[in-house]
Specification:
With 153 residues, this protein is α+β, with helices and mostly antiparallel strands. It has one helix at 2-34; strands spanning 44-46, 84-90, 93-100, 103-111, 116-122, 125-132, 135-142, 147-152. Strands 1-4-3-2 form a 4-stranded antiparallel beta sheet, with no helix packed on it. The longest helix is centred in the N-terminal third of the chain and has 33 residues, at 2-34. It is elongated. The model is unreliable at 46-54 (pLDDT under 50).
């Protein structure tokens, strides 16, 4: 009986070591493949009904994708002014928006300790509430007016 338990313990230990070694070999590959290349786009409160596909710049091919016969894609000239960054600091933290001709875009909402951030949006505006308990601050970005506003409650 002791002999069987000893073999079982050795087998469990060897299996745990093998799984650990293989995990440390594979985790870097999995992280590079599935986590690091996720593109997260901030949402946009638009005041226009629809956007056409020519609003986005065409990316140039990278050096490894080029062939000798390939020509680089033409860069799009930007007709609209670049959006301005507006950072609003309130008691519950800080909220950053970009204000542009096509609306406002939430860049970040960073609550201070003890506060939580809640985001609501609709066509033309974004609201970020930095809340602790029943009290907090609402930070609004109104896209068509290109302005921000705050509300304490």
């Amino acid at each position: 009986m002791r002999r069987a338990l000893r073999y079982a313990a050795i087998w469990c230990g060897a299996t745990a070591v093998a799984v650990s070694v293989s995990w440390f070999g594979v985790r870097g590959v999995l992280r590079d493949e599935f986590v690091d290349d996720v593109a997260v786009e901030p949402f946009l409160a638009q005041t226009v009904a629809a956007r056409n596909s020519t609003d986005h710049p065409v990316p140039e091919p990278s050096a490894r994708d080029r062939t000798p016969a390939a020509t680089p894609a033409p860069r799009r000239t930007q007709d609209a002014p670049s959006p301005s960054l507006k950072v609003v600091k309130v008691r519950g933290g800080e909220v950053a928006f970009t204000l542009g001709s096509d609306g406002c875009r939430l860049v970040s909402a960073t609550p201070v300790g003890g506060y939580t951030a809640k985001v609501a949006r609709a066509d033309g505006w974004i609201r970020v509430d930095l809340v602790r308990g029943e009290h907090g601050t609402g930070v609004f970005c109104i896209g068509h007016e290109r302005r921000t506003d705050t509300w304490e409650y």
